[in-house]
């Protein structure tokens, strides 16, 4: 065969290619439309079946859903209450640590000015001759300041603990 005849044998006809593509497009369109129609029928049947279900069955389904939601709500509320309880216990422990009565139970005292009831926090807040009321774990002591001496915090610790 001639080169042009050989090319015609190897190369399909343009019209044949266009026809093949057109045929395949039509088949694809038909397949998509067919699938769409079957899906539409399935949805319609599903809707009709749900409507045909006895009312008692549908009510039972809704009851089950309500029961499930109620259980979820109760579980969440229980968890929330437990979280709040734990938080209250933690805050209560902190309050106990700060409670002046508990401080006195550990061996500390609270000194207040008898003239105005303010708590004495520093030796700078009192003068010799001033009256103080000292609160202890089991009662109070009325006293008069006979003198004062200022210490550095570490020195005071050593003096209280070791009696130096």
Hey, roughly how much beta strand do the residues contain?
A: 5-15%
Shape: elongated
Query: Strand order, biggest sheet?
Result: 1-2-3
**Helix/sheet category:** mainly alpha
Low-pLDDT sequence parts = none
Average pLDDT reading: 83
SSE ordering: HHHHEEEH
Largest β sheet strand count, sense and barrel closure:
3 strands, antiparallel
Report the radius of gyration as a whole number of Å: 46 Å
Q: What distance lies between the first and last C-alpha atoms, to the nearest angstrom? A: 125 Å
Compute the number of helices: 5
Helical content class: 55-70%
Count of DSSP strands: 3
Quick description:
With 164 residues, the chain is mainly α. The chain has 5 helices and 3 strands; from the N terminus they run H-H-H-H-E-E-E-H. Helices cover 65% and strands 10% of the residues.
């Amino acid at each position: 065969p001639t080169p042009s005849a050989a090319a015609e044998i190897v190369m399909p006809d343009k019209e044949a290619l266009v026809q093949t593509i057109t045929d395949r497009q039509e088949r694809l369109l038909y397949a998509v439309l067919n699938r769409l129609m079957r899906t539409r029928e399935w949805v319609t049947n599903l809707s009709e079946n749900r409507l045909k279900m006895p009312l008692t069955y549908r009510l039972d389904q809704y009851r089950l859903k309500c029961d499930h939601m109620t259980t979820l709500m109760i579980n969440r509320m229980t968890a929330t209450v437990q979280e709040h309880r734990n938080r209250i216990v933690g805050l209560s422990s902190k309050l106990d640590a700060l409670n002046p009565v508990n401080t006195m139970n550990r061996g500390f005292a609270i000194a207040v000015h008898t003239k105005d009831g303010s708590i004495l926090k520093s030796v700078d807040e009192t003068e010799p001759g001033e009256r103080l009321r000292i609160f202890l774990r089991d009662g109070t002591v009325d006293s008069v300041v006979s003198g004062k001496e200022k210490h550095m915090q570490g020195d005071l610790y050593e003096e209280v603990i070791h009696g130096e």
